[in-house]
């Protein structure tokens, strides 16, 4: 096995993890790949939702299914069942398998059993790891594996792994805050629905995971939004209306969503009480939150025309952290 | 082997081919993948330049290197040498290998030997093919393989394969024309260099392959461009300055490039004499060429601010055919 194969596998693992970036809150986004002894990719797994199977478990499940031909657990999403099944049925099939994981496999048993113990017990002899687990409760997976004779190779695409993990690191101490906007290719952000259905569903899935949405007072008055996650049957987060003027028409739909707190405040101090915060809006909200935002998420519709207003006069250089292309282009960015 | 594995492999083959879209002129962009018997990806190959090895040859070369451990031809770019070496040394290693190819393997021997004959002689038993070869001189590869007992499965991701092949189909009959522009995320297209170094190098590589560049008269007067391919040591294509007024300062650098024809004309009729045409410019050139362009290529810099003018008042909905993310975002599009 050469480094090229490990890097290729880690690239796949990172891309898989990005598909669920923020959606795994409060867990980190993680991707995992199983490799054959000559370095070819056998399976790719990704953590999708807190409480669900870890990335390693999905990758091991699919590698087992492919290599054994036994499809019993092929579609299974029950972490305990996959762990138990693999432990009793692996029959040495993993002895030639290596793994690439964006984050050190967890040592502890939480809502799901320990990944490191499973990897050890399946007899996997080599694990490529991008980033060491920064969570003391979950760390130690690598030494557990090393003690059992497995080789753990750290630092494969470490910089990319650290970027992937940034939100997770942040929300353990203070809120992770991202600014989201939708625009056309010509930069315009006004005049009707801009994003595709799949982009709006993704955005609702994010709302479902966030605990606070921040939005500008003018947008609330003008758009009269609901700010819920109805497209994915999700929960509606609390709302902070950022406004110097406190009076709002209470028939605006966002005020009638059950189990939601709505604040109308002229500062962003409230954010400190939350962990995952999405800021929605245009130019003025962008400017007001410029020192607060960790990341930026842009849904870009490949259209020219249809609007007038763009993000001017904002001046900002971004680094693209990850992009996803569907019928729209989804850009995860941070300031340079 | 299941269809999922074939689709995954074809996706990789398509993405690999897009890396060299238009750069293979006058050949088609083609990607190829070798798969092991359980469906894992062994190697990915792509055709890079007319006269160089075909995609299948690169994929077979790398599969051989990986599976045999023999690195003799690992870095070889000589098609004949790879063909000859594989034929004499394969030692049955390919009997469990399948392939996914975006275009039917060629049957004829041109600048390089026939891919279909090589695949047959290596004993490969299954080839997934996205699109049948539309070129009568090269077609027939699949029946040649079928006659030898190999299974050819057509139509895997056929729609995507046909999109990839569109320029090749077009330039065999009439010019393939694409409009290229660079913009910031806020849609602005003016005021200094917008694209990154790697984007400009890609654009110069395209210029090197094009036989004609079309540009508006105002851009020529204002930017005083050279319109060559110096960043990649490439050749400079002919230039058509699209202008109602025929007088230009002959000290503008584009007029002094050796071995170049420069036309100053008020119509686009001249395009019919060429095969691969890039139109560069802003709003007015976009509008003038709206009925002429097959595709659109946008280099998008992830920046806000720095310019004033965007593509307004153009109204256009695009389909994104392919996107590539580096420090810039490169979007291949066509009108919806």
UniProtKB/TrEMBL annotation, chains A, B:
Descriptive protein name = Riboflavin biosynthesis protein RibD
Task: State the UniProt keywords alphabetically.
Answer: Hydrolase, Multifunctional enzyme, NADP, Oxidoreductase
Write down the EC number. 1.1.1.193, 3.5.4.26
UniProt KW Cell inner membrane keyword: no
* CDD domains per the UniProt record, alphabetical: Riboflavin_deaminase-reductase
What pathway, per the record? Cofactor biosynthesis; riboflavin biosynthesis; 5-amino-6-(D-ribitylamino)uracil from GTP: step 2/4; Cofactor biosynthesis; riboflavin biosynthesis; 5-amino-6-(D-ribitylamino)uracil from GTP: step 3/4
Gene Ontology biological process terms from the UniProt entry = riboflavin biosynthetic process
